[in-house]
Amino acid sequence: MIKIKTLEEIELMRESALIVSKTLGMLASEVKPGVTTLQLDSMAETFIRDHGGVPGFLGLYDFPNSLCMSPNAQVVHGIPNDTPLVEGDIISIDCGVLKNGFYGDHAYTFEVGEVDAETKKLLQVTKESLYVGIREFKVGNRVGDVGYAIQQYTESQGYGVVRELVGHGLGREMHEDPEMPNYGKRGRGKKFVEGMVVAIEPMINLGTRRIKQLKDGWTILTADNKPSAHFEHDVAIIDGKPEILSTFAYIYEALGIESDEEAEFRQKALVL
Fold first, then answer.
1. Are 183 and 154 in contact (CB under 8 A)?
2. Of these four, 58, 114, 155, 180, which has the most CB atoms within 10 Å of its CB?
3. Strand, helix or coil for residue 252
4. Looking at the DSSP assignment, which residues form a beta bridge with residue 232?
5. Judging by beta carbons within 10 Å of its beta carbon (0-12, 13-18, 19+), is residue 17 exposed, middle or buried?
6. How do residues 210-259 score in pLDDT, each as one tens digit?
7. What are phi and psi of 168, to 5 degrees?
8. Whole-model pTM?
9. What distances in angstroms separate CA 241 from CA 194, 213, 265, one per listed residue?
């Protein structure tokens, strides 16, 4: 059952989402060759707690850490470890926060040093597909409209869209209805209404869409060991239109990137 949020609840969710955003922004300047994902995980947990939140992933379904850290061919749900990142890696950092009884949950795929052009384009197209999908999250549309838009945008450029892992509703639980696949058919699935909040998260592979799971029970990686990209925003429907609750602005500030990509999805300006 889809749980509709009041405007007051959405604002509480925005608080949780922005702690995630600030955590990712803090990590942006720490993602570099030589650092381990376990070190980044420790930094994130401290930062989240210092900002009044609780790590949303730690212990959730018995997950052992605060961040899902998924480099290169890992799609999602990678467990932090002591292996240093190296020049040319990419890494999806997925972070969750619980505050005021509500979850925030979003992700960004970072470049580690200089990344090859083919992989850089995968990241660019995957992030663009996130906003292509978000545009379809509005009153009167359906789940399939979002999935269709993401699928068409990415597959038209030769990429594989992961089927087994999907976005989801968000609220007092990390995973609520509806599921939000990154593929689908227009006009199919549950209808969007005012007050819905979801996490939209394209997971797009350079090669085949097929995946496999490591014996750790968590880590998902591409079947052909080619890179995968992952970007995620928390989005609410307010006044019939999509409103992004999370932001990549803290990441861009840390990396010196100028972007207005989120402007059309904000009814009021974000104050950093």
1. no
2. 180
3. helix
4. 107
5. buried
6. 999 999 999 999 999 999 999 999 999 999 999 999 999 999 999 999 99
7. -165, 160
8. 0.97
9. 8, 37, 8
